[in-house]
């Protein structure tokens, strides 16, 4: 199947429910803006509980058929969807940059990254195996089979509007589940464009339903899914407080949960590290999407012996980063998503300076570029009493903490309720083994700043959530195990 859609045709303003594009039940809309300029992109449906229920009704009606579709048939649909995403990569990349603000090169990169999950789970759809349990009693045959959990509600964030929803929808569809989804209020257009391409790829009506809702409407809208016993799973990426709310409010129906929540990632540079490689790795890990990722290093610990040298090397590289809107092909850092994000970044930097931090580069807003820009920043002499040590900044700010020995670094790295990602650089193989085991995180980068892959399990420990996305493990969260015991066979 071949299709070519321009960016204009990809922009959808209504909800996608039961294979149809429909406005909100009450006709309400809200505005999507371009964070680079503050200009209005379009208005989209502002859904409420009635729209959430309509999506659930459509998913419930479609579930028996999709559940019984052969795995190879589901795989074929996902492969067609994957092909359409790639065929429209330029337009999707532009759409991501338009509503989210990231540089166009990053927007296109996100399309390829998100599409990789669709391709991966298309293959995994045909590998859902069960077990024959060794016979325990004569005349009995015991087997274990895996079945789709049912309707999945997917709630996604704004920082990766294509990748986050693709890596939730793809395994759900591969497993035989149907989906109701609500993208973030800042970035609904990419998710709606994905729904359009899924429909073109042959995803049957009701199997995938996407509704948009503003910040004010989101709680009441999602509450309908939390209370509806037909929705058997919630998959959410976002803040820890919201994740805890979803866990509490869904408890009455004991839904299965996958929660990929906040982080406070440490990045440790030992004195035996390759400093040039560590700087390059930190730039890749920290400044992707302007520092607006859940696995961004938030606390950088540098050993005494190399502290000043590392700070100088890093500051030089950070000062060279190009801050500009996505329309500038040289842009490396775009705008922050909204004024709330910008104010939090500024507050963290101001608080750090008041507590004695030195600004090595950046440290200021860039109003001449637009309403939501902040200069890439490096702060020296960071200390644990600064707000940025315990709160996730979610912006282009690197605070440098000093440490003296390995035990101190590991203790400081783990001194957080979060445990999503950790990074460290060292050339000592024994230290690599020790520290890799001791860090309390679901993901550990060792001499590497780019961690994400569709083949690897992504998820955290502690208050960073539970469940895994991607890899062969990512399908399990959308399946339940049924034990079949057949007697009277003698």
Automatic annotation (TrEMBL):
One of its GO terms (molecular function) is oxidoreductase activity. Its EC number is 1.2.1.-. The keyword Nucleus does not apply. The active site is at residue 260. Residues 21-483 form the Aldehyde dehydrogenase domain. Gene3D superfamilies: Aldehyde Dehydrogenase, Chain A, domain 1, Aldehyde Dehydrogenase, Chain A, domain 2. InterPro entries: Ald_DH/histidinol_DH, Ald_DH_C, Ald_DH_CS_CYS, Ald_DH_CS_GLU, Ald_DH_N, Aldehyde_DH_dom, Aldehyde_DH_Superfamily. It is an enzyme of class 1 (oxidoreductase). Pfam families: Aldedh. Keywords: Oxidoreductase. The keyword Oxidoreductase applies. Belongs to the aldehyde dehydrogenase family. This is NAD-dependent succinate-semialdehyde dehydrogenase. The lineage of its organism: Bacteria, Pseudomonadati, Pseudomonadota, Betaproteobacteria, Burkholderiales.
